[in-house]
Sequence to fold (156 residues):
Amino acid sequence: MPSQTPYEITTVPAQPSVRHDEMLPHEIPPGVQLVTLPGGIRTLAYTQSLAAPAPQPVPVAQPIPTWAKTTALLAPTIGSGVAAGGIGLSYAAPGLIAMSQALWAAVALIAAGAIALPLLLGTARRSRGRAAPTQITQNITATGLFGRANGTINHR
Fold:
């Protein structure tokens, strides 16, 4: 039967006088062990743990936070309120349009009254007696540049 490895492993016998290749147990890194090969040679090798991996902890059910419950309960309420408001506006739209037209008519009436009232009063005063208008004369005198002014009003 042919060898399973494509290369031949050769070893050099250790010389007893030279002992520089040995490591103290505290110098061996984790995951590495001192092993004895079938030929009797001791060497360092990476080892795999045959122990089964630690089982994953079973997740514990967490209680639902209060804010999440509140939000979940408010979402349909707010949605229904918006829907009801939309339906109400669709029913009220013709009345709102009529009301806005009535308000514009009221604004136009007030503007027309503000313009027409002074014209009517002026016409009524002029046509009432056709008397000569009252004349008022003022005589104001002052002495000096910064003197106090005195005046008289004469109604004729």
